[in-house]
Amino acid sequence: MVFKAAMNTKEQLLRYLKKEQGRFVSGEKVSSRLAISRSAIWKQISRLKEEGYDIESSPRRGYALRSIPDCLLAGEIREGLNTRLIGRGPIFHFQQTDNTNNQGKALAYEGAPEGALVIAEEQSQGRGRRGRTWFSPHSQGIYATVILRPLIPLSETPKLTLLAAVAATEALETQTGLPIRIKWPNDILANGRKLAGILTEIGTEMDAVDFAVIGMGLNVNVPQASFPSDLRYPATSILIETGRPFPRIRLLQSWLEALEKYYSLLLQGDFDNILSRWKFLTDIVGSRIAVEMPGRRYIGEVQDVDGNGVLILKESDGALQRIFSGDVTLLTV
């Protein structure tokens, strides 16, 4: 499969219409500026209308952009995005899909380049850790997956989840002003309630990392009453926490920018700074916790988090346990 990275004709046309700020521009002028035929312009205008852009067409005056849909479309994501890699390659947009990580893995196996982005307006089978469901209503959240191809040992891939969580936390704090924290290993909390989650999956080839897909589900404009009854207390959204709706595009851009920053640090061998930031945002070292795992429950005090994000837990008898995954509950006594 051939993956196109450069801005395509449709995106160039959209950017041109935006610059005109609602004024009509003639088909002849667009044709000359973009070096495409009048029939090609009409074809791309039709595609933009199908995506939800309100474009007024007049035989004598040309075309004018009237409104922009609240959709996470490629042209909207790239405009104002301050990255060099992530989001600069192909962007795959779905109105609905099973989940973006599944799509990302399929595209990665087909050769999608590093930095490619998968976006969905709705997921029918949104997933969290350990097969849990992520509630993914249409146009009310961000369901995104980034494809990366890091040249790191397989043993170091847990670092990707940590850096993605740090990136999400910093992006959300910057954009919303909310107090955001990380719950080990990959939940993002606002005022103690689950706002977002990170899911990293790895593709290997000959015991080496072929690709990683990092998915984020973020509850943006989900009203309290929309959550399923069993999720209404643990789950929250930016709308619930702030009392007002938020533009999804800028939230997504902010996460992609922070993700690229921390991914670059990882590749430069500077993971210590990422881990230090992660520890600060989790504030879990020294806490007494219970960890639920399949067939086992551990209780103890967190001694440290190692360079791969593994919890070092000290039980009451002094035994040290290395906890790679599990459900954590903070114990107050």
TrEMBL record:
Catalysed reactions, as listed in the record: biotin + L-lysyl-[protein] + ATP = N(6)-biotinyl-L-lysyl-[protein] + AMP + diphosphate + H(+)
EC annotation from Swiss-Prot or TrEMBL: 6.3.4.15
Family matches, as InterPro entries: aa-tRNA-synth_II/BPL/LPL, Bifunct_BirA, Biotin_CoA_COase_ligase, BPL_C, BPL_LPL_catalytic, HTH_11, Transcriptional_repressor_C, WH-like_DNA-bd_sf
Positions with a binding annotation for biotin: 123, 127-129, 194
CDD domains: BPL (cd16442)
Gene Ontology cellular component list: cytoplasm
Protein name: Bifunctional ligase/repressor BirA
Species assigned in the record: Syntrophus aciditrophicus (strain SB)
